[in-house]
Design goal:
6-stranded mixed sheet, globular, binds nicotinamide-adenine-dinucleotide
């Protein structure tokens, strides 16, 4: 059954002001229309920003523990709806059900974590240079935030933004990807039913060009938290910078796994398979490059190719499926074009490489797990983000060579090394240029209580998730307070004595 979803503006669910809608389809079966959402207009965005501004006046003054109680309730409601929401994630985004449920679990974890932060939004009290005077710093909210999210984690990523923004006392206008807009609508519906006051969360659907950009640059907003491609994030960061608007961007990746000759090859095999092909390679942290020590290169490649061939591609709701479809026609075409580029560049195709068709594949966007061997670091398939089930395998002479290759892209989000040698691990921790590094684990699997984000073209501004050093810093700023209770002007304060 197709869902008819609306925008949420100032606590009221409304259609687009010009009545147009955008359809969202199941990528495993395009005959299955998941729902329709408003194709919003600038007028709708203006109304949502206005509602968020009004609500900010009282939300910022609501005690943080009280805000936390509402978020705690939201966590419980999301947990109660986990199964249906997880199924909706799979139906609308395509990832297998286990991953759909995991997407929702991230949101539950983040909500509980941020609810607790309501009682921990601490600043610092430090001694003053002068008698009868005290000094402290406190966290204050930034104001109205635009939250712009991609389709690959349709519940988790909005949760990573909404809950920290709210606990810090901001109000938000949330614009999700149109490809997973029904998940967003259902998620917001659940959150507001926890008792979030009207206007604190506003939801505006629509395309990036028309609604996203207008929202991000809107004079009524104070900050932007964006997750998506590097091209869009960098463009927004430039424009917002010129407007003196706070902006943080989590963007693309080209994440490497290094496999050393001393490692447990079976462990590395499992990590490489799920790092590369989990979520059909559509994670910002997916492993898209495998850098293998020359001594184990051919052996590991054989193990990898024979395991990848056994992965079952199919609709995410089917129990036996390992890998679901890719999100849409244009993403499928982009991935297939990169496969052609890889062949032309002279990389050796060792498995996959084709779109699957016929039978249950006929109406979906299915691509075989694809592995290219003998890839060189300068090839486009080794440098550019493909965002699909395509893995580039590169041979390395030694650890230094492997690290140099790991660092040879414009991205720096996640990375991993498989080794039993503690020195190899330590050097990698120090020298690989990425925001996140895993030792003896794949490039995926971030935990919400730590800051998340990348360097180079993978991240700009503050880090997401985590508390201090992460999301709390993204969504609050410091105010410093000096209080003099001496009852006189202390001239030393003016540094005149
Ligand atoms: P995208 O950049 O096309 O879109 C992301 C969001 O931005 C969508 O809501 C879209 O409508 C909106 N948008 C598009 N153009 C816009 C514009 N000009 N102004 C304002 N908003 C605009 O990305 P996508 O295809 O939805 O997602 C895939 C990308 O996201 C990949 O590059 C992936 O690596 C990245 N990603 C990064 C992280 C991370 O945390 N680093 C997490 C998930 C996905």
């Amino acid at each position: 059954m197709a869902d008819v979803c609306k925008n949420l503006i100032g606590g009221k669910w409304r259609g687009s002001s010009d009545k147009k809608t955008i359809e969202s389809v199941n990528p495993a079966d395009t005959g299955d229309i998941v729902g329709a959402v408003p194709a919003s207009t600038k007028k709708d965005v203006d109304a949502a920003v206005d509602a968020a501004r009004k609500a900010y006046k009282s939300w910022r003054l609501t005690p943080a523990p009280k805000r936390g109680e509402i978020i705690f309730k939201a966590a419980e409601l999301i947990a109660k709806n986990k199964d249906s929401l997880g199924r909706l994630v799979t139906r609308e985004m395509g990832k297998i059900l286990k991953e759909g449920l995991g997407d929702v679990q991230e949101a539950i974890d983040m909500a509980y974590y941020m609810a607790g932060e309501g009682r921990r939004l601490s600043g610092e009290t430090v001694p003053s240079e002068l008698p009868d005077k005290d000094c402290k710093s406190v966290r204050v909210p930034i104001g109205v935030f635009s939250l712009i999210t991609p389709w690959n984690f349709p519940v988790a990523i909005p949760a990573w933004k909404i809950f920290p923004a709210l606990i810090c006392g901001n109000t938000v206008v949330f614009k999700p990807s149109s490809y997973t807009a029904v998940c967003a609508a259902r998620f917001v519906e659940i959150i507001v039913s926890a008792g979030v006051p009207d206007g604190v969360i506003n939801l505006v659907h629509g395309t990036g060009d028309e609604v996203g950009e207008y929202l991000a640059l809107h004079p009524g907003t104070d900050g932007v938290s964006f997750t998506g491609s590097s091209a869009v994030g960098e463009k927004l960061a430039k424009m917002c910078g010129a407007l003196d608007k706070e902006i943080s961007c989590e963007m693309g990746g080209k994440n490497p796994i290094i496999v050393m000759d001393d490692c447990d090859l079976l462990l590395a095999l499992e990590g490489a398979l799920w790092g590369a092909f989990g979520t059909t390679g559509q994670r910002c942290t997916a492993a898209s490059r495998l850098i293998v020590h020359e001594k184990v290169y051919e052996e590991f490649l054989d193990m990898l190719a024979s395991s990848a061939k056994k992965l079952k591609v199919g609709p995410g709701l089917k129990k036996e499926t390992d890998i679901g479809p890719v999100i849409n026609q244009s993403q499928m075409e982009k991935i297939l074009s990169y496969i052609e580029i890889g062949k032309k560049e002279g990389a050796r195709l060792v498995c996959g490489g084709k779109r699957l068709s016929g039978g249950e594949y006929e109406k979906g966007f299915f691509i075989e797990p694809t592995i290219f061997a003998d890839v060189r670091p300068e090839m486009r398939i080794a440098k550019e983000e493909i965002f699909g089930p395509v893995l580039a395998v590169i041979k390395a002479k030694d650890l230094n060579d492997a690290i140099a290759m790991a660092n040879s892209t414009d991205y720096g989000l996640s990375s991993s090394i498989y080794t039993r040698d503690v020195n190899n691990a330590a050097v990698s921790e120090r020298d690989i240029e990425s925001g996140i590094i895993y030792i003896n684990a794949p490039t995926i699997g971030a935990e919400i209580q730590l800051p998340f984000g990348g360097t180079k073209r993978s991240g700009l501004g503050r880090r997401e998730a985590g508390g201090r050093g992460g999301a709390l810093d993204m969504f609050s700023k410091w105010k410093v307070i000096y209080r003099d209770f001496s009852g006189r002007l202390q001239k030393a304060q003016l540094k005149e004595e």
